[in-house]
Amino acid sequence: MTAEITSHEELRELLGTPMPRAVAKERTVLHERDRQWLAASPFCLVATAGADGSCDVSPKGDPPGFTRVLDETTIAIPERPGNRRADGYRNILDNPHVGLIYLIPGRTDTLRINGRARLVRDAPYFADMVVRGHRPVLAVEVRVEQIFYHCAKAFLRSELWQPETWRPEALPSRPRLIKEVEAPVESLADLERHYGPEYATRIYS
């Protein structure tokens, strides 16, 4: 029989009270160490929710420092060519609240930022976001409302950065997955060519 949790009180009784330091670590202004973390991070996850409560998490990656610090409470994330679904961006237009997690490869802690976002189609700082000659098509500006560092436990439990635990061959290749799940009418040969060695040369076009 499934035992569902249905109240804040029940949840707190089950999990216990957070340590004072875990509560007090929340900040609303970027620290110099936050700036350094953003300058070193090449990857973040952007969580959004639509007006109807539907959620989306989108990965964003670029050379380290791709997120630009505009001031002590504002950052900007560039958009690069993708699948054009724009799920997260449509969510932001309806509900500006976003959650971000910034990773640094090999680090088991993460930087978390929650705030209010807006979409910007152009700004003077876009010139500083050019990568391989490509200017971002838009940027997500986030006004920081909550920022703190998250501990290493999830990464230690998962052994995420331990190469000896990596098993990329556990699942079929990207072309095979696409053919089986998304595009059964396309030939495997065409998909293998598309996702072959030249794929990495087209990621900014």
Automatic annotation (TrEMBL):
NCBIfam families: PPOX_FMN_DR2398 (TIGR04025). The lineage of its organism: Bacteria, Bacillati, Actinomycetota, Actinomycetes, Micromonosporales. Residues 31-151 form the Pyridoxamine 5'-phosphate oxidase N-terminal domain. This is Pyridoxamine 5'-phosphate oxidase. It holds the Pfam family PNPOx_N.
